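no rush on this but wanted to send it before i forget. theres a chain ive been looking at and ive put its sequence and its fold in token form underneath. i want to understand how the tokens follow from the sequence so walk me through it. thanks a lot i owe you, the record is right below:
>
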Amino acid sequence: MSEGSNKNQRIMKAAEALVQAASMEVDSVTQQKLSSNLDELKNSFDSKLNTVSQSMKASGENFDSKINTVNQHLTSLNQNLTSLKSEMEEVKDLLAKQEKRQKLEHIISSGTGFFCFDYYDGGINTRKSSNSLVKEILNNFALGFGYNLPPSAGTESGYHSINKTNAAFRTKLVSQLEKLIGHKPRLVDNGDGKYAVYYN
């Protein structure tokens, strides 16, 4: 815009210089006509320049407005996509939990006795089958919980090494659960000699 203004000023100076040179050679009537024509030309040029300037300014503002509108739509779209992604993750999580629950319920209803073993829960006459214990554990898994194992459970009774027989019990139990659910469950030492088992 300043370049156009500079050009305009140069044109006007050049035109005025021509008018001055011509005025020395021509009479006053011709000089008045030239001056009048020059003023008209100047006014016309200023008017057209003003119109072009306003048009450019309006189109620039219109363009800026359109860019702002597009940016607002993109921001809104991005927010909607983020929200949709979050909802899809929630649905995916719910479907995984539902699938896990249905799988465990099917295992429980089909029977858990295929891989069961006998264990002792604290004494000589406390022999039990792991079948009922596994059902309780699977029910907890289906609800999304772990299960605290009986601390005195072991594979042998009597005066055998308690730690050795407890470890053998946990190994057999984890193996039975793995065969039923298709992956090894997580066994956690609670730090007080007690153990808990979790689905994953």
User: Anything to note?
Assistant: The chain has a mean pLDDT of 81.
